[in-house]
Structures are given as C-alpha cells and as structure tokens.
C-alpha cells in the first residue's frame, strides 16, 4: 500500500466518525509515511510521533489511531501529532494549542 492509498482508505473510514486529516497535506503525508515505515519495521502502524517498543502488546495504545486520539480531539481539536483533527480545528474556529502527551511514562520505555 502506498501513501495515497493509505490516505484515501483512512479518510473514508475516519471522516464519517468525525475525525479529519489535518488540512496541511504535506504534514499528513509525512505522518502517513511514518506509519508505513513503522508497519515495515514492527508489523503494525504505531504512532510516528511516539517511540514504539516493537512489542505489539505493549504498543496497543499507540497503534494508529491511538487510544488517545478521541480524548485529544474532544479536548484540543487535534490528536497529539496533529494527524487527526476536528472540522473546527481545520477551519481555524478553535485555537491550535499544544496537545500534551497522554501516554503514561511507564509505557514509553
């Protein structure tokens, strides 16, 4: 699967759920490239903005879309890496503020 195919597949699945790709398509494609690299590296698409362990069980929480996406988008209008955003975020109706890391420190190592 190439980035364009991944983009279309994820867009078609996620938009009906209210999750949109960041309007900055270059940013989105950099992140999608990271997802594909991680899929080749680990066998699963772990979040490219976080350090994966290579253990699928340990990294379940950061397999994209990660479990932190929904609360991040609900609270900030964007997920941690700004891949998935709300419609209001894309339309600049809400401020683009820093999204803090929700992943517990003990899961990061």
Describe this structure in words.
The chain is built from four helices and two strands, in the order αβααβα. Strands 1-2 form a two-stranded antiparallel sheet. Helix 1 (3-14) crosses helix 2 (25-42). The model has no long low-confidence stretch (mean pLDDT 96). The chain has helices spanning 3-14, 25-42, 69-76, 87-90; strands at residues 20-21, 84-85. With 109 residues, the chain is mainly alpha-helical.
What does this entry show, briefly?
By secondary structure, this protein is mainly alpha-helical. It has four helices and two strands, in the order αβααβα. 28% of the residues are buried.
How do the strands and helices of this protein lay out in sequence?
Elements: H1 3-14, E1 20-21, H2 25-42, H3 69-76, E2 84-85, H4 87-90
Antiparallel strand pairs: 1-2
Helix pairs in contact: 1-2
Helix content: 25-40%
Count of beta strands: 2
- Following the backbone from N to C, one meets helices and strands in this order, namely HEHHEH
Radius of gyration: 13 Å
Strand order of the largest sheet: 1-2
Estimated share of beta-strand residues? under 5%
User: What is the averaged pLDDT score?
Assistant: 96
Contiguous uncertain segments of 5+ residues: none
Which oligomeric form is depicted? single chain
The chain-level structural class is mainly alpha
Q: Given the C-alpha coordinates, what overall shape results?
A: globular
> What separation lies between the terminal Cα atoms?
30 Å
Total count of helical runs of at least 4 residues: 4
State the major sheet. Answer: 2 strands, antiparallel
